[in-house]
Amino acid sequence: MDNFVLRCGLHADFTELTACVGGELDRHEGSAVHRRYFYITLLREPVARYLSEYRHVKRGATWKGSRHWCQGRTASAAEVPPCYTGESWRGVTLEEFAACPWNLANNRQTRMLADLALVGCYNGTLRHRTSDTERVLLASAKRNLAAMAYFGLTEFQKISQYVFEETFNLRFAVPFTQHNATVSGATLAALSPSQIAHIRRLNSLDLELYEFAKHLMFKRFEALKKRDSDFEFRWRHLGEVAPKVGVTEFDWDSNLEDATTERSRGK
């Protein structure tokens, strides 16, 4: 679609996507249409994710194309100040990376899933953080995650695949691959206990969000498993599409209004 996703910004977060996608689709298709949107995402164990981003930045990666759009405008340089001078942060040490107080790597998953307008956009997320704004961000991220049609966890590839397939009544032709040995894992093994503790403090919101996500995904998995009379066969043959199977017949409404949806049910 002509790099459509980049029209909402490089690595656009939930705040940016929800404000951007409808208008961009209208422009792309040439008319205003009422649509239903189904957001999905993947989360990763926060310490491993942080170290992976650190190594990515150390190799010279930047997010200069990110707009950090919120409430109709991009964040100013004062609201999202850079952690480095020059073209990139290539060669940065972990100590330098962790020392930047407004590093966007800190609690990235919580920030990207939350409604930033609730805390004054980037003015309230980086330069003027308080325990109250952090609590609001975390609650918002949890709420938005629970409302998503689907989310998965990097550390649980097989369960994530099963939940996706059962939620959307779609089948992957190959199984998801679980890579337990990662570069960030090797980096983690070389860190001291104090370094790990510091990274955990920097990502305390993400750690709580991840535990919430893990509990919720396993709850959804068990609900789907319970109603699947062919679970044992399906579980053994994930990533295998039977030759006789053609185009999947799919109805969003009948597949999403199911036990995977979190409902109050009078509670």
Automatic annotation (TrEMBL):
UniProt superkingdom: Eukaryota
A cellular component term, taken from the record's GO annotations: membrane
Pfam family, one: Sulfotransfer_2
EC number: 2.8.2.-
GO molecular function, one term: heparan sulfate 6-sulfotransferase activity
Keywords for the protein's UniProt record, in alphabetical order: Glycoprotein, Membrane, Signal-anchor, Transferase, Transmembrane, Transmembrane helix
Subcellular location: Membrane
Top class in the EC scheme: transferase
Entry-linked InterPro entries: Heparan_SO4-6-sulfoTrfase, P-loop_NTPase, Sulfotransferase
Catalytic activity: alpha-D-glucosaminyl-[heparan sulfate](n) + 3'-phosphoadenylyl sulfate = 6-sulfo-alpha-D-glucosaminyl-[heparan sulfate](n) + adenosine 3',5'-bisphosphate + H(+)
Primary subcellular site in the record, as a coarse category: membrane
Membrane topology according to the record: Single-pass membrane protein; Single-pass type II membrane protein
Function in brief: 6-O-sulfation enzyme which catalyzes the transfer of sulfate from 3'-phosphoadenosine 5'-phosphosulfate (PAPS) to position 6 of the N-sulfoglucosamine residue (GlcNS) of heparan sulfate.
Family: Belongs to the sulfotransferase 6 family.
Name used for this protein in its record: Heparan-sulfate 6-O-sulfotransferase
Source species: Euphydryas editha (Edith's checkerspot)
Organism ancestry: Eukaryota, Metazoa, Ecdysozoa, Arthropoda, Hexapoda
